[in-house]
Amino acid sequence: MIFEICADSYEAVLLAKKYAIKRVELCSALSVGGLTPSIGLIQKCAQIREVEVHVMIRHKEGGFVYSDLDIQIMEKDIKAAKEAGANGVVIGCLSNDNKTERTQNKRLLSLAKKLGLEVTFHRAFDFCTDSKATLEEIIDLGFDRLLTSGQAKTAEDGIPIIKNLVDQANGRIQIMAGAGVNERNALKISDVGVDALHFTIHNKNEINSGMGFANGLNESKLNDIIEQF
């Protein structure tokens, strides 16, 4: 089983290296679903060659519907992520009616591929109205993998749809399950045949300075999940 950690710090990537984790999804602002991290953080984490760094390309919170100006910004972020040493990017654009915005996704994907980056379609998928048709479009566009909770609040709740997606994909794209993956349900979720599991290893600091919460690392969670496989 391949593991991917959702990381927002250099320390989290160091922990991924310690446990021989294949890759991290590097983000900032995990409390709003993840935003594009700083260039300095990407550069620093990319120095840890043993772990692949896949960068979230989402510069603003509040959803996945973007203007042309937003796409221009995201293109610049993709180029900057590549220059900073990233191995891949994580993207996803939707229309106002919760369908994939094909033109925007193709534009960002084509740029990333031209730069030699792997590309993951993130959990914007879980807001789409037709999972079967959306998966076919993502495959047709050429994405490397899909991160999904099975269109449920957690991947455990979404197991039936995740299983259908695995069967439908039939090896044409990697299916990675994420959202609420922990030591109690990781094996159950993996049993549907997903290619990878995606999870956070954070403990939220309950002390709020008025500028947000600081995240600590939960090494025991990581260890407990890995020991099951």
3D architecture notes:
With 229 residues, this protein is of the alpha/beta class. The chain has a single domain (2-226), classed as Copper homeostasis (CutC) domain (TIM Barrel, Alpha-Beta Barrel), CATH 3.20.20.380. It is built from eight helices and ten strands. It has helices at 10-18, 39-46, 68-83, 102-114, 131-141, 159-169, 186-190, 219-226, and strands at 2-7, 23-26, 52-56, 88-91, 118-121, 145-148, 174-178, 196-200, 202-208, 213-217. The strands form two sheets. The chain has an eight-stranded parallel barrel with strand order 1-2-3-4-5-6-7-8, surrounded by five helices. A two-stranded antiparallel sheet has the order 9-10. Strand 3 (52-56), helix 3 and strand 4 form a beta-alpha-beta unit. The chain starts with a strand and ends with a helix. The model has no long low-confidence stretch (mean pLDDT 95).
